[in-house]
Predict the structure.
Amino acid sequence: MGIVLAPMRGLRASLGSDRITQYDAPVGCLIINPAGVDSSLAWSEVRKNLVVAIPPGTLSELALQEFDLANVELRPPAFGVVDPIALDIAQRMSAELTGKATPNELYLDSLVTLFSTHVLRTYASHMKQPQPPRGGLSSKSARRIEEYLREHFTERVHVAELAAVAGISANHFIIRFAKTFGMPPHRYLINMRLDSAERMLIEGEIPIAEIAYLTGFSDQSHLATTMKRYRGRTPKDLRFER
């Protein structure tokens, strides 16, 4: 699947046949190429878009969890159709991937889940419209999630594994988590890492680079950038102030 992030003129495409269609693709144009369907896409100028590749098995599993459908078939929109919701999610993914800071994997994982769920809800055949979750996580599920994150916050954490701990689907988990904790999962994880890093900076003499490694950041620069963004100061500032 691809979402156009800048206008493209004279795009030539085919899907499921040999017939070539030429059209101008506006910003937000969504291109879906279902698995197993022959297609072609050609352009004559520099393009700016975001491609999201979702394995058929992953999409089928999500359809089963979210919509109770064992078999799902995507019906692509007509060439040139704009999807504002897909565009919004794609722009957030692009900003995270191209920003100066190291991309937050849990945040990207959440966005891919939201994108996939939207595509299923909008373009899958015989799709039932699910009721959105009204409340947050149960107190038992919330405790399980907190315990799991305390044990694994320095590691790579994915939405699917957190949803499994809570015993609900990935898309519902993202919504229920935010209602329970007042923030999305990736922000909660960032706070846990920053809290741990701040304690180490205040209480000991461990080098900042090592603290970054011990608290789940890719390097010292990643820790400094994240702390400055969310706490308004750098590790050096905090160590100097103690």
Observations:
- The chain is about 50% helix and 10% strand.
